[in-house]
Amino acid sequence: MDVVLLFNGLGNQMSQYAFYLKKKQVSRSTRFIFERKSRSIHNGYELYNVFGIPLRETVLDRMLYFLYLGLAYKKARFISQPANRLLGRLGFRVYNESDNYNFQPQMLHRSRGIRFYAGGWHSDRYFRDIKDQVLRAFEFDRSKLGAANEEMLQRIKVCRSVSVHIRRGDFLDANNYSKFGSVCTLNYFLTAIEKVRSMAEGAHFFFFTNDHAWVRENFQGTDVTVVDINKAGDSWKDMFLISQCEHNINSNGTFSWWSAYLNRNPEKIVIVPRNFLAGIHFEDIYPEEWIQLSDY
Asked: Beta-strand (E) ranges in the chain?
């Protein structure tokens, strides 16, 4: 049996669920479980509220989760190491992706025993051949948008709209900045905007961000709209609006990644930073047709 762990925010959960769908195709016994500590960060399990994907919590799922915790426990090594060796002999194992986001085809093989998969699985190569199934799974419920978002959607649809997703907030924390926050600089966004202007005449830029003051300070003009509607549990509505723009300029995050991936425009331009993490390039992190900027 394969068990895929879902954790962190909406974008991560979507990557992990898409990976689960592919694993389910390989082995029908595949299940997914949700990390309990993720209930208190971000917005908890979001796939149900956003896409109607229920979270099963049967007795078996609870048992699998506690088994995973036992395998993942690394403290008190005089206890954890013998326990892990015993569980390993019984056919239990955890596969951790770590920070290598490149496609690992062996992760899609059928497993023997019980295998837990803990990682991001952000490359579309994991689920490229079931893209239609993934897109069907991630269809938004427009009845939940509300009047303000419907009005913004109409503005997006009547112009050559380009989303610019700028993530700051937690990316600026001391523990995150050197790894994540230093990738998408002001110069990156300015360069990306000029790149799109050269390719899409008359572009209008819709900014989505968790730092509206910074965006308003640095981006102004008649071709700029700062979208300041959705917060906290409603942030998925920004993802929907981004996916409805003609073109997309991304930050280095999974929220950006999925927002652009769900854009159905066959002629879309998607601009991304070449490095997803500071100083690290992954060949497989982006779909091949997306434009990767490195000189900024």
From this structure: 2-6, 31-34, 92-96, 114-118, 160-166, 203-209, 224-227, 247-249, 270-273, 291-293
Q: Counting beta carbons within 10 angstroms of the beta carbon of residue 223, is it exposed (0 to 12), middle (13 to 18) or buried (19 or more)?
A: middle
For residue 135, CA distances in Å to 108, 163, 243, 278, 285 come to 20, 20, 12, 30, 18
Opening angle at CA 129, ends 126 and 130, nearest 5: 90
Contact 147, 230 (CB under 8 A): no
Identify each DSSP E strand in 128-246 by its residue range.
160-166, 203-209, 224-227
Tell me how far apart the alpha carbons of residues 85 and 81 are, in angstroms, rounded to a whole number.
Answer: 6
Structure tokens at 220: 């102004």
Amino acid identity for residue 140 in this structure:
F
Q: Render pLDDT for 263-292 as a digit per residue (tens, 0 to 9).
A: 999 999 999 999 999 988 999 999 999 999
3-class secondary-structure state, position 277? strand
Give the rounded distance of the alpha carbon of 6 from its chain centre: 12
How many CB atoms are closer than 10 A to CB 91? 12
DSSP 107: G
Q: Which residues of the chain have pLDDT under 50?
A: 78
Q: Which amino acid is at 2?
A: D
How many CB atoms lie under 10 A from the CB of residue 265?
A: 14
Amino acid 39 reads R
Tell me the residue length of the chain. Answer: 296
Give the 3-state secondary structure of residue 164: strand
pTM: 0.92
Residue whose structure tokens are 């050269």: 198
DSSP strand pairing (31-34 vs 160-166): unpaired
Q: Compute the distance between CA of residue 287 and CA of residue 262 in angstroms, rounded to an integer.
A: 12
